[in-house]
Amino acid sequence: MALTFNPIPVSYRKMSDQRLTDRILRMKKKLGKKLVILTHHYQRKEIVALGDYRGDSYALSKIASEQDAEIIAFCGVHFMAEAADILTSEKQAVYLPNPLAGCPMADMAEITNVMHAWRQIKEVLPDTRIIPIAYMNTAADLKAFCGQNNGLICTSSNSTGAFKWGFRRGEKVFFYPDENLGVNTANLFGIPKKEQIIWDFRKRKLGGNTPEDIKKAKVILWKGYCHVHTTFTAKHVKDMRKSYPGIKIVVHPECPEEVYDLADAQGSTAFIVKYVSEQKPGSTIAIGTEVNLVDRLAHENPDKKILELSGQTCAMCVNMYRTTLNDLAWCLENYQDIEPLRVRDEIKSDARIALARMLEIKK
Q1: Which range marks the domain in which residue 49 is found?
Q2: pLDDT in tens, 211-242
Q3: 115/189 Cα distance (integer angstroms)
Q4: Does residue 39 sit in helix, strand or coil?
């Protein structure tokens, strides 16, 4: 039985997985349409099995915005539950079963650092229209910043559409916090390397750039990354092709550029799920993304050989893994005594604008 760092009662920690599952199912039946459970693709198999909906952050944001349920249990990480709260009504309550489930990438873009960068960029380019685009993996205040400054949010599902949206409205795009997704999307647009610059938030003066660099740039990319997807290397791709001739390789766009370019297909978690399901029986497929999704796809596609791209290296999102049956059972059985996740009203209104734009654009 998996344990968690979430400070739930010891009694819940000691229950068997079967008993926890039975209690969760009992609460689902008791609450009926009042409850909806959303599960991200990276969650444990046993959590995904109990969800009403599964998907990537884009799909789950859209689903959350369409729900009438009073209680939304979001089995994901903190920024996802925040987005659900922003997009739902005041009568609805969003719960994160394990409140410690965060995102290291999101933490790399902190509001004071982004505001500092924005001020410096505007000082260099006072008359240039710059469109901020925040990846979904950001805190609510950074989503609000985009809403306040004519920007929007994107996910790995629709980053291309977001860039198109941005360049129709401005001369430059300021993208944060994932450098790799930004580089891979900029490359799709054919933006030359000399017009892509990286803003290193640890360097107080112009993010390590010169004023001339900033003036020439079409895209300004934050120096952030996903620790899971930077596990994968070009060597992993080449080794897989050598070991398994004819193998198909699909990777997430948070992977480094050299991995992205060597793969057969690239896309969000939802794209990866669809890609695998569409391959012929007997296919061998290596996947460059979080191990829980790879493992689940292997179980769901027994007619195919599913491999982790990095081989023996475990590409796991420990924050996604935090949410256990213990957490979900305790959350559902005690929701009336738990404080739901709430985004402050002054942040929510501007963040909702940016998220609504995300939901309106084409992928």
Answers
A1: 10-101+320-343
A2: 999 999 999 999 999 999 999 999 999 999 99
A3: 27
A4: strand
d(CA 43, CA 25): 18
326, 335, 357: which is closest to 94 by C-alpha? Answer: 335
What residues form DSSP beta bridges with 71?
35, 93
- Residue 78 shares a structural domain with residue 41: yes
Tokens of 144: 């609000």
Prediction pTM value: 0.91
- Percent of the chain with pLDDT strictly greater than 90: 92
* H/E element, 265: strand 265-266
Ramachandran angles phi, psi of 331, nearest 5°:
-60, -50
φ/ψ of 283, rounded to 5, equals: -65, 150
Q: Within a domain: residue 354?
A: no
Specify whether the CB–CB gap between 117 and 197 falls below 8 A. Answer: no
What amino acid is encoded at 194 in this protein? K
DSSP string, 103-165: -HHHHTS-HHHHHHHHHHHHHH-TTS-EEEEEESSS-HHHHHHHHHTT-EEE-TTTHHHHHHH
Domain count, the chain: 3
Burial of 18 (0-12, 13-18, 19+ CB in 10 A): exposed
For residue 197, the cross-strand partners are 220
- With a CB cutoff of 8 Å and minimum separation 6, the contacts of 41 are 48, 54, 55, 56, 269, 270, 273, 290, 293, 296
